[in-house]
Structures are given as structure tokens and as C-alpha cells.
Design brief:
heterotrimer, A alpha/beta (305), B alpha/beta (246), C mainly alpha (368), A: 305 residues, alpha/beta, Rossmann fold, Alpha-Beta Plaits, four-stranded antiparallel sheet, 10 helices, C: mainly alpha, abc type-2 transporter like fold, 2 domains, elongated
């Protein structure tokens, strides 16, 4: 039995029937770390709310742990863990009070499933009497995760848990998720950060309510159709403009220090011709080498097609 | 040395015993794209508010576009633009109405507003959407529009607080195209971000930890200094020391 | 059950840790009672009255003494002629005047009747009416005294007695009114805000996705405010008895029981508002504008309902505060027991059940 199944789900909002989720289907295996990757407006939160039984879809069906999200919603609600987007916890309750509260709500105690949250909790335990509102962003994340795990859920839904948090805390958070996965919990995460995609077992790339691609990260990368190069010079903005104007350029995008470039006619003569052209345009210290595509490259390619 | 449009010297902000921003000292030149990085709670927002003339410093000096942050906050506000992820445009007004409104606030003449709004709409390719409510636009368009409105009055400096949060990769790059174009025209860009690749797009970066500036240099130099392969690693090395993360 | 208690405990934390809440919860009633009790009285005290005593005899002097002895009037001066009286009125120096005719005493003794003239400044009709009433009752009092001594006390005189409140103290009306107002405000607004706050911060989503029954979430929010409101009621009553010197004539237990009922009514109202609103600001606005204003106007404590046009009187029947106001007055001032107020109690209970039913029906176990 699969942990989660989604079958032709469509969700619209408002009188003008704005489509938030457009005929989506996918499934998640037990114990998988599954990522919904996409920008704001992709439909990630809507899907989460449908799966956690908080919203009803217009069309389609979905199950969690084999239970139907519409008919068996009460049972689902007792067994899953959920961390909504920009979750703030109870600001005026202390760390310990928050944890105690959620434990009791789910009919358990902090001690009962302590091994599950131990790794995470020890990091915030020194502050157990501090009000949740006074914690830093990273600490709040950890506390929220503990509260969502305290009843040992079978499936954990995390809606954008790393949004707005600095890169260091983000990295730590994903390390925690990896360790949780080893305990057998199915985890479904959504995030707008493409670099986090490679940390999942499988991902679904989403935009405007549709799934652009769904597979293992390395398979998606492997199926990138063009050869990709990274290139840099001294004046990057001008390089970008000049390269985009070349007739042989298929795509050219900034990627931090380098530009990622792919060509229409890609062979050695053409590559050399390109470098000559750029040199003539005044660029210096040109470096160009082949590069493995990232998930972001794949996303951009899918968007443009 | 091109003129410094932002000059700060030991700028400090205290809230009671807590020192949110501690002796911030740096300079930003005209037309520079300056990245202002730091973990949450490091003091970035506090520092930025002082620079925008929104918060009076506890001690230290600063001059923004030549105006003093203590005594000339109103002139500062007239010469800067501001944009953030949270504040965008009025969702229930149309694009044209928003432009007219902000143009009016910035004190532009009607003729200027008409000129600028035509320019803006053409540049962004929004001719068909000009009379639509901003709320009906996708997020990426809103961000680009927001930026264009923030520079409507041709400010000397634009402050941007995580402007590309939650936006798709293509729109993000288009947004940075806009930033580059503005910088070429001599507008100084002061931007905070959590995307480390965007840190690379900046001319220089500063990283704040526990209220102080711990690093200030070009991305290339910083990577060399910390023996790091990417800005991610640089940030990581510095931010790990942070005590305020507790 | 344990779960429920944990929820209640959490709600107490929320309520007690928020300074603004505490201020409204406890500060408001005290302030209101003080203001209403002392400042806003539509009693008239220390009014200046001018006596034009053309008789200057024993009867007039006795009456003048009596007027002076009452707390309500200050004798300003004795002017003799009409012109001077008129001037004094015009200059606003006096609001009331009494003119005794020349043969006042003689007329009483020999003709068994006498006239005197009471003139009041009716540009403030309320004050004028009150003053002439007070003066009237003092005069009638005096008249009764005289009658006691008469050999032939054969008179038909109208006897005016102010039942239960001979001194016409305003405070009797205000305390029940303020109680109704304050309870309504606090319970409705605080409950509504508390529930909507969970929706706003997103914690409501988590509560819904848990084995906890949504009904219990709501109930747990009501409990702290029930307890805190009862504390408020106690404070108000203590203030009334010891500071404003207003006695409670009926059963205190019954008073508390009825207060509890009214509190539950208000909590249900708060619940209804929270079910239909999405933001704290809207909840607060509806509570203030939608509840406070009608309560002020239609509960009967500021303006008498009997004087309103019939359609408005019908509307006032739907205002819970109106029934509570009657109940409290009956217990506190008249000293009635449950026998005298069972009708109003039943109506209040009915309104409560109706509100609860509608709220539950509208309560969504999903977000949309």
C-alpha cells in the first residue's frame, strides 16, 4: 500500500474559478522523502491541504495510508503530522508548554516517543522555558518539527518549512529530515528552493498547478536534453547580453558565479567560433567548461518548453 | 574612486541592553550592487531601517545620498526607493492606478508620470494588462512591477529586502536583469537575499553576524579568503559562529 | 478529558499573558463603574435656586429651610421683584426660582389653600423637569407635615412615593446596565478574537488536523473567559456595594447564576462571530459596532424602551442585554426571587441555545 496517492485532483478558488491545482496525479511510497518543488502559486499548499483533509477538491480522489481524504478524514487526522506554511506555533507559550500541549492533544506524552525527536530536541532543550515567540527562526523550525512528530505520525507533511530561513538553518533542517527518514516515516516536503530538491528521494517539479516532471532527482538531471556549459568572464552582465544575442545560443542563464550556456549547433568548431566572437566583443579572462545540469536548469528548461 | 552614496561609521542601534546593530562601518559607491547578507536575527533589518531613514541610530554616523540620517531623514526618503517581498503594490488597484499613485507620492509631475508609466509598461511588455488589477497578476510580474515602481522617481539608491523570495527561476533572472540595467544607469542597489547565487551577482557583499559586519568584500575575494568553493560555504563558515541563533 | 483540560490550561495561559487582554478584562469594568457611578449622574445636586419671598412669614420660612436642608438645592439669594428674577435667568445665573406670594401663611391657615410659583429654566428640559419634581416633592412633603398638625386634615393630596429608590439615586440604574455592557463587551469580543487569532496565525489548521474534536477546541476557549468574567462580576458587585453604596436586596446566589447564564449567552455570540470572520480586526469591529451600540441603545439602561416607537421595541426584544438588565434590576433592587424572573430567564436561555446551534451549524471542520 502506498503512503499517499493523488488521482486527477483539480482545485479551483473563487467565483472566476481560478485553477490552483490542475488535474494532478502522483503517488508516494512508504518511507520515501518526497519533495514538491516549485515557486509560489504552483499549487503546493493547496495539495497539502487536500491531503491533510483541510480542503475538498473539485475533482479527483486522494488517499493517505490507504484512507480516503474525504470519507475517512477523521482517521487520517489522528495519524498524520502536519506543519503548515509559515507556521508560528503558540507564541506566548514556552517551548516545553507547546510540546506538552501537542503531545496531549494527540493522546501521548513527550516521553513516549522521545527517541524520535531526541536529536532535534536536545538542540532547543536549553531554552525550554523560553516563550516560542522569542526564539530565532531556526529554533522555531526545530520546535515546530518536534511538535509535528511528537505522536509518531505515519506520514509527515511539511509545507515550506525552510522558507525565509537562512541557508545555515536550512541545511541543518534537511539533515534532520534525513535522519527522520531512517526511522521509517514517510515525509512529504514542499519548497521553492531548487537546491533542496537534490536532497529528496523523489521530486515533483510544479508550476501553475501542473506537474512539469516527477522522478528521482538524478533521473531528471540525466534526462536534460542538451549539453550544458558553464562560462564566465570579467563583466558578467555584458557577457550575458552578448551571449543571448548570438544566433547559436539555445539558452543562457545566470547561475551565480557562472552563466549556464547551451548551444543549438554544438560541436568543437562552433564552440571555438563562439569564444572568438566574445573575445572580439571585448571580454577577457574567459573560462568555459562542461557542467552537469542542476535541478534549476531542468526547471528552467521545462518552463520554457 | 567613484562617489560614495552610502557612508556609515560605527552605526549602532540599541534597544535597552540589546545591541541590534553594532558599529556598522562601510561605504557603497554609486552604481554598485551591494549585497547585504546575514542570518535571521543578525541585525540586517535593523541596519537597513537606519539607512532608509526609518529608524534613528543610537550612535555613530551615516550619510545616505549625502544626507544625514539623524537630521535629514525626509530628504533621504525622497532620494531612495524601497521594495520588499512583503510590501508590493496595492492589489485592488490596476497597474496604471498604482503607477499614478506612487508617482504622485514621489512628487512627480503629471507629465512625468505619463511618460514614465508608458516607458515602464512598454519595458515590461504589460500593454495588455495595464488596466488589470495587480492582484490578478502572477507573483513574478508583481515583483518586477514593484521594482519598476520603486525606481519610478529615479532615486539614487534602491533598498531591496529579499525581493525574489518564492519567485520561479526564470522570473528571478528577469528581475536581476532589471537590477543590472538600473545599476548601469547609475542607481545604487542595496539588496538582502537568502539565495546564495544572487550573492554572486553583487559587486560586493557584507555578511552580518550577531549585529556586526564580519565580512566585506567581493565574492571572489571572500571565497579565496575562506578557502571556499561557493558563497554558500563562505556563509556557512561565518554563520556557524553565530550566538544569536539561539 | 485530559485533552480538554490541557486545552483549557493553554487558553488560560493565552488570556493571562497578553497584557492588552488583561487590561480590557479587568481594567474596563472598574473604570466603567467608577465613571458611571460618580461622574455621569443625571441626578441634580447643588442646583442654585432663587427665592423671592414676598411673604416673609413663618410658613414660607419653614419651607425655605426645608429646601435648603435637602442636598439638592443651594439658596442663591432673595431678590424681590420680577424684573430681577428675569434678568438672573437670562444671565444664566439661576436655573430655578420660587416665588412666595405675600400672604402665604395666612392663605394656608385661613383658606386651606395657597399657591406658590416654581419657575425653572427649561432650555435644559431634563434638568428642569427633575428640579421641579424635586421641588414639588419637597413642597408636598411640607404640605403633609402641615396636614398632620391640622385639626381637619381632610384633603385629597397626591402622594408620590418613589418605590425602592426614594432618593432617586441614578446608581441603581447604572450598575446593572454597566454589568450587562461590560460582560457583553468582554465576553463577546475576547472570545471572538481568541478563536480568530488561531485562524490567523495558522495554529487552527494544526488543531483541525488532530484527533481533537473541533467542538472541544471552542469550548476550551470559552472556559477561561467564563471564569474571568465571573471574577469581573464579583468585582463590580463589590465596588457597587462598598464604594457606590448600592445594596443588593435579593439572593446573591441567584444573581451569580443568572450572570453565568448571561455570560454563556455572550460567549455564544462571540463564537458565532468568530465562525464567520477571518481576521481579528473584523472580529473586533463587529463586536464593538455590532454588539456594543445596540446594547447601549436597546438594553433600556440609557434610554427607556417604553418611549421608543413600536418597531424599535420589537428589536430590543432580541437584545440579550435587555433581558439581563431586567433580571439584574429585579434581583438587586427589587429583591425578587426566581419566581419573579423566570420568564426573562427562559427567554435568555432560549436566545443562548439558538446562538449555539447556529454557530455549531456554521462551524467548518475544513478550511473551505
Amino acid at each position: 500500500m502506498k503512503a499517499v496517492t493523488v488521482d486527477h485532483i483539480t482545485k479551483t478558488y473563487g467565483k472566476d474559478k481560478k485553477v490552483a491545482v490542475d488535474n494532478i496525479s502522483f503517488s508516494v511510497e512508504k518511507g520515501e522523502l518526497f519533495g514538491l518543488i516549485g515557486p509560489d502559486g504552483a499549487g503546493k499548499t493547496s495539495i497539502f491541504r487536500i491531503l491533510t483533509t483541510l480542503l475538498l477538491a473539485e475533482k479527483g480522489t486522494a488517499t493517505v495510508d490507504g484512507l480516503d481524504v474525504v470519507k475517512d478524514y477523521k482517521k487520517i487526522r489522528s495519524s498524520i503530522g502536519y506543519m503548515p506554511g509559515k507556521f508560528s506555533l503558540y507564541q506566548d507559550l514556552s517551548v516545553e508548554e507547546n510540546l506538552n500541549f501537542f503531545a496531549t492533544v494527540f493522546g501521548t506524552t513527550i516521553q513516549e516517543n522521545y527517541e524520535l525527536i531526541q536529536d532535534i530536541y536536545v538542540q532547543i532543550a536549553p531554552f525550554k522555558d523560553r516563550r516560542a515567540g522569542k526564539l530565532s527562526g531556526g529554533m522555531k523550525q526545530k520546535l515546530a518539527l518536534c511538535c509535528a512528530l511528537i505522536h509518531k505520525p505515519t506520514v509527515l507533511f511539511l509545507d515550506e518549512p525552510t522558507t525565509g530561513v537562512d541557508p545555515v538553518s536550512r541545511k541543518e533542517f534537511w539533515e534532520m529530515l534525513k535522519r527522520l527518514k531512517n526511522q521509517g516515516i514517510t515525509i512529504i516536503v514542499s519548497t521553492p528552493y531548487m537546491d533542496e530538491a537534490s536532497l529528496c528521494d523523489r521530486i515533483a517539479l510544479m508550476q501553475s498547478g501542473k506537474i512539469l516532471s516527477i522522478d528521482l532527482p538524478k533521473t531528471i538531471i540525466g534526462s536534460y536534453p542538451d549539453k550544458l556549459y558553464r562560462i564566465k568572464a570579467t563583466r558578467m552582465f555584458h557577457l550575458l547580453k552578448d551571449l543571448k544575442e548570438q544566433t547559436n545560443t539555445l539558452s543562457c542563464n545566470t547561475f551565480g558565479e557562472y552563466l549556464h550556456l547551451s548551444l543549438i549547433r554544438d560541436d568543437e568548431p562552433n564552440r571555438n567560433a563562439l569564444i572568438d566572437k566574445i573575445k572580439k566583443l571585448g571580454h577577457q579572462d574567459i573560462e568555459m567548461s562542461e557542467v552537469v545540469p542542476t535541478i534549476e536548469d531542468c526547471f528552467i528548461k521545462l518552463l520554457k518548453s | 574612486m567613484p562617489e560614495a552614496v552610502i557612508k556609515t561609521e560605527k552605526l549602532t542601534k540599541r534597544f535597552g541592553d540589546f545591541i541590534a546593530a553594532n558599529e556598522i562601518t562601510f561605504e557603497v559607491s554609486k552604481g554598485e550592487i551591494f549585497g547585504f547578507l546575514g542570518a535571521n536575527g543578525a541585525g540586517k533589518t535593523t541596519a537597513m531601517r537606519m539607512l532608509c531613514g526609518l529608524s534613528i541610530p543610537s550612535s555613530g554616523h551615516a550619510q545616505i545620498a549625502g544626507f544625514d540620517v539623524y537630521k535629514q531623514t525626509e530628504q533621504i526618503k525622497k532620494n531612495i526607493g524601497y521594495m520588499s517581498q512583503k510590501f508590493s503594490l496595492y492589489e485592488d488597484l490596476t497597474i496604471l492606478e498604482n503607477i499614478r499613485f506612487f508617482g504622485g507620492i514621489y512628487g512627480l509631475s503629471n507629465k512625468m508620470i505619463k511618460e514614465k508609466s508608458d516607458e515602464l509598461i512598454t519595458q515590461l511588455g504589460l500593454q495588455n494588462e495595464a488596466k488589470k488589477l495587480v492582484g490578478s497578476l502572477p507573483l513574478g510580474w508583481k515583483q518586477k512591477l514593484s521594482f519598476s515602481v520603486a525606481v519610478l522617481h529615479q532615486p539614487r539608491i534602491v533598498f531591496m529586502d529579499e525581493p525574489t523570495g518564492g519567485v520561479d527561476p526564470v522570473t528571478r533572472r528577469q528581475f536581476w536583469d532589471l537590477i543590472y540595467t538600473a545599476a548601469e544607469k547609475g542607481v545604487t542597489i542595496f539588496v538582502t537575499t537568502h539565495y546564495m547565487d544572487e550573492a554572486e551577482y553583487c559587486n560586493r557583499i557584507s555578511i552580518m553576524v550577531d549585529g556586526r559586519i564580519r565580512a566585506l568584500d567581493t565574492p571572489a575575494n571572500l571565497k579565496q579568503q575562506f578557502g571556499a568553493g561557493s558563497m554558500d560555504e563562505v556563509f556557512f563558515s561565518l554563520a556557524r559562529e553565530a550566538k544569536r541563533g539561539e | 478529558m485530559k485533552q480538554f483540560l490541557v486545552f483549557v490550561k493553554k487558553e488560560f495561559f493565552h488570556a493571562l499573558r497578553d497584557r492588552k487582554t488583561l487590561l480590557i478584562l479587568f481594567g474596563l469594568p472598574v473604570v466603567q463603574i467608577m465613571i458611571f457611578g460618580f461622574a455621569l449622574t443625571n441626578e441634580v445636586k447643588n442646583s442654585k435656586v432663587v427665592i423671592a419671598d414676598q411673604a416673609k412669614d413663618m410658613a414660607s420660612q419653614q419651607l425655605i429651610n426645608k429646601i435648603e436642608a435637602s442636598q439638592y438645592f443651594e439658596i442663591e439669594k432673595s431678590i424681590l421683584n420680577r424684573k430681577e428674577i428675569e434678568n438672573a435667568f437670562r444671565e444664566g445665573k439661576i436655573k430655578a426660582a420660587i416665588v412666595f406670594p405675600e400672604n402665604f401663611n395666612y392663605d394656608i391657615l385661613h383658606e386651606n389653600k395657597a399657591t406658590l410659583q416654581v419657575i425653572t429654566d427649561a432650555s435644559d428640559p431634563n434638568t428642569a423637569t427633575t428640579q421641579s419634581n424635586y421641588l414639588g416633592s419637597i413642597i408636598t412633603d411640607y404640605q403633609n407635615e402641615l396636614n398632620e398638625n391640622m385639626a381637619q386634615p381632610y384633603r385629597i393630596s397626591t402622594e408620590t412615593r418613589m418605590l425602592y429608590n426614594p432618593q432617586l439615586k441614578g446608581v441603581h440604574n447604572f450598575v446593572p446596565g454597566v454589568m450587562a455592557l461590560v460582560l457583553m463587551l468582554v465576553c463577546v469580543m475576547m472570545t471572538a478574537i481568541s478563536i480568530v487569532k488561531e485562524k490567523e496565525t495558522g495554529t487552527m489548521e494544526i488543531l483541525l488536523v488532530s484527533p481533537f474534536k473541533p467542538l472541544l477546541v471552542i469550548l476550551s476557549k470559552a472556559v477561561p473567559y467564563l471564569v474571568l468574567s465571573l471574577v469581573n462580576v464579583t468585582t463590580i458587585l463589590l465596588l457597587s456595594v462598598f464604594v457606590l453604596q448600592l445594596p443588593i436586596n435579593g439572593s446573591i446566589l441567584l444573581l451569580f447564576a443568572e450572570s453565568t447564564l448571561f455570560i454563556i449567552t455572550c460567549l455564544s455570540l462571540g463564537l458565532l462571530i468568530s465562525v464567520r470572520t477571518q481576521s481579528q480586526q473584523v472580529a473586533m469591529l463587529i463586536s464593538l459596532m455590532g454588539m456594543l451600540l445596540p446594547t447601549l441603545l436597546f438594553s433600556g439602561f440609557m434610554f427607556p424602551i417604553e418611549n421608543m416607537p413600536y418597531p424599535l421595541q420589537l428589536i430590543s426584544n432580541a437584545i440579550p442585554a435587555k433581558w439581563f438588565y431586567i433580571i439584574v434590576k429585579s434581583i438587586m433592587i427589587k429583591g425578587l426571587g426566581i419566581g419573579g424572573i423566570w420568564k426573562e430567564t427562559l427567554i435568555l436561555a432560549g436566545i443562548t441555545i439558538f446562538l449555539i446551534a447556529v454557530s455549531l451549524k456554521n462551524f467548518k471542520t475544513r478550511l473551505a
